[in-house]
Amino acid sequence: MSLAGADNRAEALLQDLAKRRPADIVLQTRDLPMARGMAALHRGQTEQATRTLESVRPHGYEWGKVLPIAVAVWFGPLYACGEAYLKAGKAREAAEQFEQMLKRMIFPLDPLLTLAHLGLGRAYAAAGNVAQGRTAYQDFFALTKDADPDIPILQQAKAEYVKLK
């Protein structure tokens, strides 16, 4: 819900869960901070969002060294952190987050992986690497070729891509 911009609703649901499940480590250390970070991002508080989201993004030991499933639970924070870096004007750091997601595609049908291609295209373009940006956008378009063309994010991506040519 936070990724979709429904921050208040996400926070209310997570707070309710937090009260009912105080021992849930994933909820307390990943989900709540991620929702708060996304809410800060949507309010335009990019520095606060980045700090909060950096606290929940994965570090080396989580990358499947214990269980491969650990990779999947970290795509959300990586994506959110990448978005926060983009909005903060930190294109190189944003690209690193999206690249990390795409390097570890344990579950290739995860919709965030599709969005990671778009984020990567935006990050490369913002960093001035137009050729890599175009390639990442093309990868995004290939993955969404059968999507409804009226989806706002797809329309926005197409408009951004045209400006890269």
Radius of gyration: 16 Å
Q: Output the helix-strand order.
A: HHHHHHHHH
Beta content comes to under 5%
Number of helices, counting only DSSP H or I runs of 4 residues or more: 9
The share of residues in helices is 55-70%
Describe this structure in words.
Helices cover 69% and strands 0% of the residues. It has 165 residues and is mostly helical. 34% of the residues are buried. Mean pLDDT is 84; it is low at 60-72.
Comma- or semicolon-separated keywords:
9 helices; mainly alpha; 165 residues; globular
Give a quick rundown of the structure.
The chain is mainly alpha-helical.
Question: In terms of topology, how is this protein built?
Answer:
Blueprint: H1 7-20, H2 25-42, H3 46-54, H4 69-72, H5 75-87, H6 91-103, H7 111-126, H8 130-143, H9 152-164
Helix pairs in contact: 1-2, 2-3, 2-5, 3-5, 5-6, 5-7, 6-7, 7-8, 8-9
